[in-house]
Amino acid sequence: MSENIFTFELNGEEVLGFDTGLDAQAFAQAKTAQFITQSGFLVRPEDSIQEWKSSGVVERNGSMVIWGPFFGGERFDRIILDSGAGDSGGAKALDALRRWIQARIPLEKQEESLWPAAALIDGSGNVLFPPERLVLRCLQAEGSVLTSAEPFVHPDRAGEDAETFTAAAILYSIISGEAPFQGGDSSSIHQDIREGVFLPLRLAAPGVDEQLSSLVDRIFVPPKAGEVRVQLAEIREILGPPENGRDPASFFHPLNGGELKQREEEREQYSRNRARAVGARRFVARNTAVILGVIIAVIAAGLVARSIIAGRKDLPTTEGLTSREVVAAWYGAFDTLDHTLMQEFAAGRAGRDDIHMVTNFYVLTRVRQAYEYNITGTIPAQEWLDQGSPPPDRPVFGVSDLSFTQTRGEEAGEEIHYRAAYTLWIPEGGEGESSSPDSARAEPMPSSHPRVDELTLTRRKGSWRISDIVRTGE
User: Considering the entire predicted model, what is its pTM?
Assistant: First the structure.
């Protein structure tokens, strides 16, 4: 991996350079002002702060390099990366972390980057925080954003809370030799950080001090409502001062072979359980809408099925009725607009026109009731005639003067025939029609239509059904 933050000689003097990875044309097209004008800060051990600004741009090896005043420090992320190279590497990294924490204190009012890569630390304890956007450009050119920046910064926390998180993530990396949060892209790293998906430090670094492990784990776990978060001072206290801090070995106690094996088995078991739990939780989170839709669909299907079963149970049936009772009920359904009964009493296409007429008139009547609150339904034709045929205040519909006789077949047989004579009364304007729903005019007098029907009834599953109606007179 290339090192895009480095020192070099320019016009006979040492300067600090930031390789943008852009050629002259791309650099001219990019918004380079944000790389040049933003200030950085140099913090000295005595807490004095000095502003650092870039001085110019120069082309080196075909790439545009922004340069500024010399600083001979080392990148903090590189120090962390080398911390696994023996006790000396760990001691150097812990000391750098102490220096970094100490330098953050006087910068509490400055919004400086928390990335380890955005801090340079020299042997005297001076810490330089270069301009954040300039460092980001260098990390992008290196291709090291995912390893040098993302695992150490919480995407949502701010202020000291964010600094405490970063310090804990750096400390975890130094102690265990690996970043606590890893992933193939920034979104997966951020998701792990937000959800607190990490391997506890005691499992990542077997034998580590329990107090240190517990402190770091508490910082990573998303806090509950009202819970007091860990302060940066607690990490400072456990690490000790930069001048006389604890050695890395002091954070460990030796484990025998059996204990090491037990920790390894515990780590594997924890990793498996965590993978299952996280996978299930994220699957549900990703597919919440689909799962809810399926649940709703299942519930709806159940309710519909239940409604259908209940509805079928309550439907009118010809079971137990004689053929004469079936015929009488058929024509009585005209008066009550009971199209459901007519559908159940007829078989096949028998009486389709009459069923359609009754259904249509039923719907229109309901619509009128919704619009005209003074409409309360219909008047059965025979009832209206018995009242002396007064001007109706409601639509008149139904059958009057019904008489029917059996013409062929026997009650005990499989088929029987009837002839029915009656008068059908419907509102003036046509069969199945009514006045407009928004009409406020008086109800029209009904018109009469004498009819003669030849009915055929067939026994179906032991019950009589009307299988055919032939209209011979009207």
Answer: 0.63
Alpha helices in 287-322 (DSSP H): 288-314
The two three-digit tokens of residue 89, written as one number:
């590497």
C-alpha span between 176 and 161 (Å, rounded): 22
**Distance from C-alpha of 35 to C-alpha of 37, rounded to nearest angstrom:** 6
Spatial distance between the Cα atoms of 113 and 208, rounded to a whole number of angstroms: 29
Mean pLDDT of 174-178: 93
* Separation between Cα atoms, residue 112 and residue 91, nearest integer Å: 25
**For residues 453 and 471, is the Cβ–Cβ distance under 8 A?**
yes
DSSP code at position 19? E
Whose tokens are 């650092």? That residue is 52
Token pair listed for 146? 């995912």
Closest CA to 358 of 393, 330, 324: 330
Strand partners, 466: 346, 457
Place of tokens 């978060």: 229
The half-sphere exposure of 329 on its side-chain side, counting CA atoms within 13 A, is 22
Which helix (H) or strand (E) is 256 found in, with range?
A: none
Angstrom CA distances, 468 to 320, 335, 451, stand at 20, 21, 16
- Give the three-class secondary structure for 6: strand
* Helix (H), strand (E) at residue 410: none
Q: Report pLDDT digits (tens) over 344-387.
A: 899 888 988 899 888 888 888 777 776 665 556 788 999 999 99
